[in-house]
Every structure is written in structure tokens, then in C-alpha cells.
Design brief:
alpha/beta; 2 domains; 9-stranded mixed β-sheet; two-stranded antiparallel sheet; globular
């Protein structure tokens, strides 16, 4: 990114002021927690109230930790068990909507895909957006996720990678995650005072700021090839207006780090989710503040940089990071590696 581009984006992310309706966008909302998740429904409702056109396209089941997974050239088959929120019975077609669910009046705009978060996002971009909007999407918002996605955990995050596949297809995208609520609940658990609505209002204000500060006719809203990763800290109901927004770096600090164990029953994290008798190998997670004895002596990357997004969140601020759609290294790192390969590469 050029220096001018960097300065422009930094200006976009300054503290948000009072919100007025933004220019209407065609927005796709997705996530890795399921098409019935309270967070995406709260966001849908608030975006619609702000004047945007919106669809939800997300997985039918919990796809957390699926990263950028895609089942290439494999048919998406019907459900073999009820959907995560229980509104779609076993046998439902692999791509369906919540039309007919009596508790919501926008069910025809909620698409459920029996596959990964990336597949559900592609469904929105390639099929649902044109069918509903009659035009391409202007923006993809992945989340809000239950729990933060920061640092090294982002590689395995379905929330983050759903945003990145959109970027790699040429669409603007924002990944959003929140410290609370940390566990899933369906949209019919929402009430007027639910924290999910405060998260949604923060996202709406962020979208409004992007629209206001983008050049006329700039469909991308974001610098090409880049997305935002936004993480909300823990805060009490009614306190979102006092939160400060801060530009951050992705860094490597995270709430948890994965590790492999030959016997899951030895992992305190696995025990906490009911796998105490599972004497089989698998991947567990070492959670900051609740370090797993099974991970003792293993190598983990430490990151105390105060600008790293997880450290910003831990400090009670909203972290806004700029992430790339691919793995291209910065020019200076490429030059360093070239020097080490002197005489081999041209």
C-alpha cells in the first residue's frame, strides 16, 4: 500500500462520531457459527434499519475453526441432523432458507449452506446476491463471531477466512469478532437489551464511516486486496458508546494457541468440554490465563507489542487491523530472502 493510501485508511478509522444514515449498500452477512446465530441476525436487523439491503448466507452447522476450508467438487448434501438452531429439520436441502420460520419476517433473505464458511460466502457472492439484489454485493461482513479472532488464531478462523475469500474475489470485506457473548445462541434468544445489538450498532457506525470517507464511485470501500479485522473487547451492556477505536496490527498474540496431544484426556481444555474420557489423539487449545498442563514445555510465540490486536482488546479498546487477502510478504522481507538465495534466484 502507498504512503498516501495508508494515511487515507488511518483517517477512516479515527474515533467514530454520531451516526447518520450512510449511502445504501448491498451487504452480505456471513459467519462460521451458523445461519441462525443471534449475532448475524442482530446485525441484519440494524443494517436494514440503517437503509442497507442485506442478506445472510452462512453455514447450517457450527463451522468454527474451519479456516479457509473448501470441499472442492463435492456436492453439498442435505442435512443429516437438525440445523444448529433447530429451525431446519434433517433432510433439508444442502442450500435452503429460513423462509416460513414464524418468528422472523425476513427468512427468505437468510440462506443456510450445509458446508464451510468459505462455501457459504461464495454462495452469497455468486448466487444469492444477484438473486436478491439484482446486482453484486458491495460489502461482505463476516460475524460478529462469538469470541475474539486475533493474531495467530486467525489462520484457522472461519470468520476471518470468510472475509478473505471475498477480498480475493474482489469484494470489500470486514471480519468482526467480540469477546462476549462467547458461546452460541440462536436468533430467537434475542431481546431488545441483548448485547448483540450493541455490537451491531458499532458495526453500522463503522460501515457509515467507511462510506463517508471513500471516494465517490469507489465500490471497494477498502484498499484493493485488503480487509479489516475488527475485535470488540469485553464491555458491559450500555457501555459501547464509551469504547475507543484503535488502529492495530494483527500480530501473533491471541486468546488461545492450538497444540497436538496424543491423549485428549490429558488436556484440561479437552476435559472442560466433556472429552475427559477421550483417550485418543487430537488438537487441543492452550488458553491464555488458563494454561493447559498438557501444553507445558511446548514452544509458543509470545507477543507483548501493545499495538497487536489481542493486546489492544485486552486493554479494553476496539482493535481495527488491516489484513491481506494473500500471503505476500512485505518488500523488505522479500529482499532479505533474495539476499540469502544470492546466486540461486534472479
Amino acid at each position: 500500500m502507498s504512503i498516501n493510501g495508508t494515511l487515507k485508511f488511518a483517517a477512516i478509522a479515527l474515533a467514530l462520531g454520531a451516526t447518520v444514515p450512510a449511502a445504501a449498500l448491498n451487504i452480505v452477512v456471513t459467519n462460521d457459527d451458523g445461519c441462525e446465530a443471534s449475532t448475524v441476525h442482530a446485525l441484519y436487523q440494524r443494517l436494514r434499519a440503517a437503509g442497507h439491503q442485506v442478506i445472510i448466507s452462512a453455514s447450517m452447522t457450527d463451522q468454527s475453526g474451519q479456516g479457509g476450508a473448501l470441499a472442492f467438487l463435492r456436492p453439498i448434501t442435505p442435512l443429516t441432523a437438525p440445523s444448529r438452531g433447530g429451525n431446519l429439520p434433517a433432510g433439508t436441502a444442502g442450500v435452503a432458507t429460513l423462509a416460513g420460520v414464524p418468528t422472523i419476517d425476513y427468512g427468505a433473505r437468510v440462506f443456510c449452506v450445509n458446508s464451510t464458511p468459505v462455501a457459504a460466502t461464495l454462495h452469497a457472492l455468486d448466487v444469492a446476491a444477484t438473486a436478491v439484489f439484482g446486482a453484486p454485493a458491495d460489502l461482505v461482513i463476516s460475524g460478529p463471531n462469538y469470541g475474539n479472532n486475533t493474531g495467530l488464531i486467525n489462520n484457522g478462523s472461519g470468520t476471518v477466512n470468510a472475509a478473505l475469500i471475498a477480498v480475493n474475489r474482489g469484494f470489500a470485506a470486514i471480519a468482526v469478532s467480540a469477546a462476549t457473548p462467547a458461546s452460541y445462541r440462536a436468533f430467537n434468544a434475542l431481546s431488545a437489551s441483548s448485547l448483540e445489538y450493541e455490537h451491531a450498532d458499532l458495526v453500522v457506525s463503522l460501515v457509515d464511516k467507511l462510506v463517508r470517507n471513500s471516494h465517490q464511485g469507489d465500490r471497494g470501500l477498502m484498499p484493493a486486496g485488503h480487509a479489516m479485522n475488527v475485535n470488540f473487547p469485553r464491555y458491559e451492556l450500555g457501555q459501547s458508546g464509551s469504547l475507543r477505536w484503535r488502529m492495530a496490527d494483527e500480530g501473533t498474540a491471541a486468546v488461545a494457541a492450538p497444540f497436538f496431544v496424543m491423549d485428549l484426556s490429558t488436556s484440561s481444555t479437552a476435559q472442560s468440554v466433556g472429552l475427559g474420557n477421550m483417550r485418543l489423539p487430537g488438537v487441543s487449545v492452550n488458553i491464555v490465563g488458563r494454561e493447559d498442563p498438557a501444553a507445558a514445555g511446548l514452544r509458543f510465540v509470545t507477543d507483548a507489542d501493545p499495538s497487536s490486536e489481542q493486546n489492544v482488546v485486552a486493554g479494553g479498546e476496539i482493535a481495527v487491523s488491516v489484513i491481506r487477502g494473500n500471503h505476500q510478504a512485505p518488500a523488505q522481507v522479500k529482499a532479505l530472502v533474495r539476499s540469502r538465495l544470492h546466486g540461486l534466484v534472479r
